[in-house]
Design brief:
Number of helices: 10
Distance between the termini: 31 Å
Shape: globular
Family: Belongs to the ABC-2 integral membrane protein family.
Pfam family, one: ABC2_membrane
Helix content: over 70%
Number of domains: 1
Transmembrane segments: 21-40, 52-75, 95-123, 135-156, 168-187, 233-252
Largest sheet: 2 strands, antiparallel
Protein name: Transport permease protein
InterPro entries: ABC2_TM, ABC2_TM_bact-type, ABC_2_transport, Nod_factor_ABC_transporter
Order of helices and strands: HHEEHHHHHHHH
Strand content: under 5%
């Protein structure tokens, strides 16, 4: 456990020392909220405006960025530089490496969520949950969501052949998920086929779960199926945690193909 905590602190220090990574991971969602929040003013029903709808999606996007996108890009780069290969030659248990990544992602996710909530409440009229039940929902949606995204990021990291190609492989996937999962547009306004595709992946369900926390209960009638459907949100996110864990265990590569 001490090794895991030490590795986690090392990962966090490395993250904070990389200004480009800090700006992209922490500042990008905030910039998106400020830009689009200043543009989206239309009322979409039940006293909800498009800015409030968009902000909940950006919180989910922040979790996806911290877990899926960051790890799916960072790990191939470390593999390409031989970092993972060198770790295999040390007596450090392999799980310690992943523990460090998980602690780093947890730190980033908490920090980013706090920043987004401060910006959203101060400048865009988003109200914080006012009941213990909503805070509990917020907690389990975030925990399941970041767990699924973290495991997906580790599993997806095996697809990039080189560290240089990782951003080109990962970024389009993340952008497509954002545009089809109800982040930038009202989900039910999207074409039916796009809704069906997005419903396969975690981000759509993270957005839906967070809307149940920050938007009125009456707005649930505008969701697919006429409700926020939190049991299905939990079921899908939990299933993704299990599927992604299996993929991590069966596909993760410590070395590049040229290393054998």
């Amino acid at each position: 456990m001490r090794l895991g905590l030490h590795q986690g602190m090392l990962e966090i220090r490395q993250f904070l020392r990389s200004r480009e990574q800090v700006v992209f991971t922490l500042a990008f969602p905030v910039i998106m909220i400020i830009v689009f929040g200043s543009i989206f003013k239309a009322d979409i029903g039940d006293g909800v405006n498009l800015t409030q709808y968009f902000v909940t999606g950006m919180i989910a996007t922040g979790l996806m960025t911290a877990g899926f996108q960051a790890l799916a890009i960072q790990i191939p780069m470390e593999r390409d530089r031989g970092v993972l290969k060198r770790l295999l030659g040390t007596p450090m248990p392999r799980w310690v490496y992943f523990a460090g990544k998980v602690l780093m992602v947890g730190f980033i996710a908490v920090l980013e969520t706090i920043i987004l909530l401060i910006v959203a409440t101060l400048f865009f009229g988003v109200e914080l949950p006012n009941t213990a039940g909503k805070w509990l929902t917020f907690l389990w949606v975030c925990v399941l969501g970041i767990t699924a995204c973290t495991l997906c990021g580790i599993a997806f990291s095996s697809l990039a052949r080189t560290g240089r190609s990782a951003p080109a492989v990962v970024t389009p996937v993340a952008l497509i998920l954002q545009f089809t999962s109800g982040v930038f547009f009202v989900f039910t306004d999207l074409p039916a086929w796009m809704q069906n595709v997005a419903s396969v992946f975690p981000l759509k369900w993270m957005c839906q779960g967070l809307r149940s926390v920050f938007l009125p209960a009456s707005f649930g009638t505008q969701e697919p199926g006429g409700s926020y459907n939190l049991p299905t949100v939990a079921l899908v996110l939990g299933a993704w945690c299990l599927v992604a864990l299996v993929l991590c265990l069966t596909t993760f590569r410590w070395t590049t193909k040229r290393d054998g």
